[in-house]
Amino acid sequence: MKIVIDDPTFLGVNEAALALSEASLSSTELVESSLSKIKTEGKELNAFIHVESELSKKEAALSDARRRKGTLLSPLDGVPIAVKDNIDVLGQPTTNGLGTQWLPSQDAHIVKILRNKGMVFIGKTNMHEAALGATTDNPHHGKCINPKIHSHTPGGSSGGSGSAVAAYLCPAALGTDTMGSVRVPAAYCGIVGFKPTQHFWDTVGVTPLSTTLDTIGPLARSVADIAVMTDVPLKSLNNRDFSLAVLDNFDSADMQEEIRSVYEQTKNLIQSSNVVIETTGLVDYEPSQARRWGLLISEVEASVLLGDLLIRSPKAFSDELQSMLAFGTRSSASRYFEALQQINSIKNRFLTILEKVKFVISPTTPQTSFLFSDETPVNQADFTALANFCGCPAISLPIKHQAGKKPMGLQIMAAPGKDVELLSVASFIEGIVT
Length: 434
What we know:
- The protein has about 425 residues and is α/β, with parallel strands linked by helices.
- It folds into two domains: about 10-230, Alpha-Beta Complex (Amidase signature (AS) enzymes); about 245-434, Amidase signature (AS) enzymes, CATH 3.90.1300.
- The chain is about 40% helix and about 15% strand.
- The strands form two sheets. Strands 1-3-2-6-8-7-12-13-11-9-10 form an eleven-stranded mixed beta sheet, sandwiched between helices. It has a two-stranded antiparallel sheet with strand order 4-5.
- Helix 5 runs parallel beside helix 6 (about 185-190) and helix 10 packs across helix 13 (about 335-355).
- It is globular and about 60 Å long.
């Protein structure tokens, strides 16, 4: 019997795929419900730079036709997805959050993968200008609003993707993560954000910020949704199959008291489920200093990667971005290579730790989402950057806590290549903390 679905936009990726398979709704109905909500409830959020109404409806109709013929491309055939606007989608303009746009000649590699599964691309999401920042207060496309706390930032640089998923404008979205740009919006917006092992997905067709640190990652509403999008088979675990560790470098770092309190409660909750949490430390690691090395690497590499476009279209770049790129241009080769050496040393030391403890947890961010009118905290990426430095997979899970409090995230990291293990542990922990 056909299931009655009052509002298809509340379906996650797996739920939407199941509803489609049971003929409870069509891809056309699912896509049109997302497009309608973007135009109405989503309008004030400004989560999208471009909404692809006509082409996505055609893609949905093609999916429905494949379903009738029994020629589905995958279980995800017909499920809508949004894409951060530094990722190329054929037929849709790319801006990279700048004051210009171009039409790509082909899909980004990750878009090809998901298109071959039949997913429907409904539009391009707002982002921090050139992905170099974490507020998504975009000077060309406007502020993107956090749907959970209006007038607050959704984080960045993948803020539009985080806002769109959290507001139920789409079941999932793609972002990019250079020092936390998927996980920070996930934490601020109360959803799940996953940064896979570096090079898990090829970045061809993604406007780069830092070739040293960039990674593509999905945002969704559950670990299971992330797993089906990444083709990662989740393992069934119990509390005896793994243990967790905390880094005293993070636990002693500067963070809001609200974050610290909820984080301690969360650790106690996990331990009450008989999951072991031990303490370890990363010798000579100071999160704020390391984050500054990562920022230097990003600014230097961005100044080179975006240099030609800046020369051709200087008005497409805000004064603030031009200043950051100019800093990267002025930075000496010795400073850049020193930062690379420092990051490599951190990587070697952290990977040694991960040979023993396997999974490391921390708050995702040292603070909750803040008002656009507030001064931007410089330490937003202090807990997330480590995974980028080391090429590790890392995930942010929303933490349940007292009603009325701002969303917060719990980060879990694992060694490079351990994406299956990480998502399986995250799925188990999700049942405890969310």
